[in-house]
Amino acid sequence: MDGLNFFSQLIIILGFSIPVIYVFNKIKLPSIIGFLITGIIIGPFGLRLIDDTAGIHFLAEIGVAFLLFTIGIEIQLSRFLKHLSEILLTGGLQILCTFIVGVCIGLAMQLSVSQSIFIGFILAHSSSALVLKILKDRSDEDAPQGRISIGVILFQDVMVVPMMLLIPFLAGESGPDALMIIWKLLKSVLIIVIILVAARYVIPIVLEKLVKMNMRDVLVISSVVITMGIAWITESLGLSLAIGAFLAGLALSDTDFTHQIISDINPFRDVFLSVFFVSFGMILNLDFLREHTGYILLTSLVIIVIKAAIVFGLVKLQKYPLRVALLSGVLLSQIGEFSFVLASQGFKSNIISNYIYQTFIGASVLTFIVTPLLVSLVYYVLARRNIFDPARDVKPDSCTNASNHVIICGMGLNGRNLVRVLKDTAINYVIIDLNFSKIKNAKSKGDKNTIWGDASNVEILRRANVGAARVMVIAISDRFLTKSCLSNARAINPNLHVIVRTKYLSDIEDLLALGANDVIPEEFETSIQIFSRVLKMFHIPNSIILTQGNIIRNKSYGVFREVRYTQEAFDQISQILAQGTIETYYIAAGNPNIGKSIRDVNLKAESGAMIINIIRHDQTITHPPGDFVLEAADQLILFGSHSAIDTALNILDGNNNDDASA
């Protein structure tokens, strides 16, 4: 493909994507489906606007790499390692169970043993790009279903290596022996560990040197080089681009450069990733689909049901709530992009026939299209179920002894700090968290009123005696769970005071509409601190600064969101600045005014500010006379306008600039 032709094809892809995505956005359908439909329309089996897809597929791989890099960088390495055993268990069992079912299906179809094993191989994988895109769009990477799904697809990607090595055996050719396959698998794990350790300790040092150059373009280029460089290394060593990109992101998590790198990478990621989904739609053979519609639809349904059921069962076995199991199941219910790599190799090696290959391609693309719809449907159904759950009667347990208490949903940093304060003030509280280790740790420290479970579940809320609680604090990262928890708690106890912490600006209005009394956006609380310090520089009294902060909070941070109340709040600030204020000045040892009388200092004439009180040895001297002599450790109480106070402070410091001003 020449450069001009490749460029024109890229323009066609992006150009056609715009109206399709616009329409899908209007009808409230996921954009991923729009990209897939675009590929079907313009691809070799549609309008044939694009025939040669080799270059397009290369761009698609880059998009997946960038996506995995951004996912990796947003997942803290410590948290990832903490759940590593869970990832290996769930991922390993998912591969094994799906493989066994695939083999059984192949044998039931009267295929050979080799063909049945190959069916198990291609059935075992789910799509990294699709799953991560859905999680990213819903900000669910940190949610339990996100953590489980990411762990499973990463394990699947590693298992591509031994599966590819076994293809010659299945084709009846001579291939590597068993020891070679085991060595290849161990080498893959070793490569992952070495790259992760090296990147973790080397790349941040290099980036620090580059950042000190204060050149934005250098950091952008470095981010791209790091992402694609490590991805290229893993590809060269027999692993995938995706694994390398994820490792690069994981290595850079928890560093000072994380947020900037994400902002630099995102534009590249979004463009290349859109190309990936369009290219995926291009492989659907519409003629074959029309001729075998019923068979392909049935195959798609079987794939989705089998894969979703296996993941659902494995997640439930780990005692996760129904919500997490359902979402994990539908998220991993499609066929993955690596399955297409395996299927292509199997077709070329004559392991499977053209009919099976084309059926697999058609059914797989349909699972891609259906998965986002299923995920949206499950979220909707769960939300509806949770809203109507409060009507159910649930038997309470020992935690219901608490009353007039605080319910803390989430034992992160905010939750732990709140627990510490409530202990010191002897206020009753109940802790709810889905992480069992956190609950176990809390119990070991003497927190008996702890509940392991999903805080959005009505049974769990009733166990915490939410009906008799006074305050609920929701400090969890899962946005969907936060809103469900708020809705259910408000339905059970309309008088409950609910405080919600959120990272997302877009959630403020929704949370207020659902009944939150206080929504604390982390970024805006920082803004209030900056705001307060600015007022302090103008000598605004603390009481007034606190009042201004409360004005902003009580009006839902409208000042910062530029939604409402902006003029009203700043009019109040202007009125305060126009009035006089009070300031305290401490005379330290060595001050040039020690030994001078108030008359000698002549502060009122020089600045316009007055000394209204002096505190000496814990005694207050009101309206001190002009012959009062100043001593070290005196505290002067000054009154005047803001500019007068500034001038008076300079005079008292000995920085009188009369000569300069003259």
Structural features, described:
- The structure is a single chain.
- With 662 residues, the protein is an alpha/beta fold.
- The protein folds into four domains: 52-385, Na+/H+ antiporter like fold (Up-down Bundle); 401-516, Rossmann fold; 524-578, no CATH class; 581-661, 2-Layer Sandwich (Alpha-Beta Plaits), CATH 3.30.70.1450.
- The chain has helices spanning 3-26, 31-42, 54-74, 77-82, 84-108, 113-123, 128-137, 144-170, 178-211, 216-236, 241-252, 258-282, 286-291, 293-317, 322-331, 337-348, 354-388, 413-424, 436-444, 458-463, 479-492, 507-513, 522-537, 542-554, 558-561, 566-578, 598-601, 603-607, 642-652, 658-661, and strands at residues 406-409, 429-433, 450-452, 471-474, 497-502, 518-521, 581-586, 610-616, 619-622, 635-640.
- The strands form two sheets. Strands 3-2-1-4-5-6 form a six-stranded parallel β-sheet, sandwiched between helices.
- Helix 22 links the parallel strand 5 (497-502) and strand 6.
- Helix 5 (84-108) packs antiparallel against helix 6 (113-123).
- The termini are far apart.
- Residues 387-400, 559-567 and 658-662 have low confidence and may be disordered.
Largest sheet: 6 strands, parallel
Q: What structural class do the secondary elements suggest?
A: alpha/beta
CATH fold-level label of the largest domain: Na+/H+ antiporter like fold
Question: What would CATH call the architecture of the largest domain?
Answer: Up-down Bundle
The total domain count is 4
Question: What integer value in Å does the Rg equal?
Answer: 32 Å
The helix count comes to 30
Average residue-wise pLDDT: 78
**Spatial sequence of strands, sheet with the most strands:** 3-2-1-4-5-6
Helix content: 55-70%
Separation, N- and C-terminal Cα atoms: 77 Å
What is the top-level CATH class of the largest domain?
Answer: Mainly Alpha
List the uncertain runs. Answer: 387-400, 559-567, 658-662
